[in-house]
Amino acid sequence: MENSEPIKITLAEIIQDFDFQDLVRKHLNELVAKRRMRPEPPEGKRYKRDWYDRMGRSSLTVGDCLMHIGDIWSKKSNLNSETRGVIQHICNLALQDYLEQKKLVPAKTLE
């Protein structure tokens, strides 16, 4: 049995890591692509505005996510709750993938 010390890494180091940034880019692109694939509403109907519409047709960038996620995770952000929620969702997915990729946590299991 190995006696290994847990790896210590800060959130700031993770945010600056290019692998994490690529994962943020991947998840942001997936989220925007999924939203853009929404079918047109039935004739005479319209969709309720969502985060994509309110953010100016997804003006959210990877740089925005990386600039704000440290404050969001430390609960010091002054962004509106909707923008915080979208950025947090994207970066939480990226963080989970990053930690699994670096083998810092066990991989997801299918039940």
What's the overall average pLDDT, rounded?
Answer: 85
State the total count of DSSP E strands.
0
**Describe the biggest sheet?**
none
Described by the principal axes of the CA atoms, the overall outline is elongated
Instruction: Please report which band the strand proportion falls in: under 5%, 5-15%, 15-25%, 25-35%, 35-45% or over 45%.
Output: under 5%
Q: Could you spell the SSE succession in H and E letters?
A: HHHHH
Structural class, judged by helices and strands? mainly alpha
> Number of helix segments?
5
Oligomeric state of shown chains: single chain
Unreliable stretches: none
Keywords, separated by commas or semicolons:
mainly alpha, 5 helices
What do you see in this structure?
The chain has 111 residues and is mainly alpha-helical. It has a domain of 74 residues. The chain contains five helices and no strands. The model has no long low-confidence stretch (mean pLDDT 85).
Brief summary:
With 111 residues, the chain is mainly α.
Topology:
Blueprint: H1 11-16, H2 18-36, H3 51-54, H4 62-73, H5 81-101
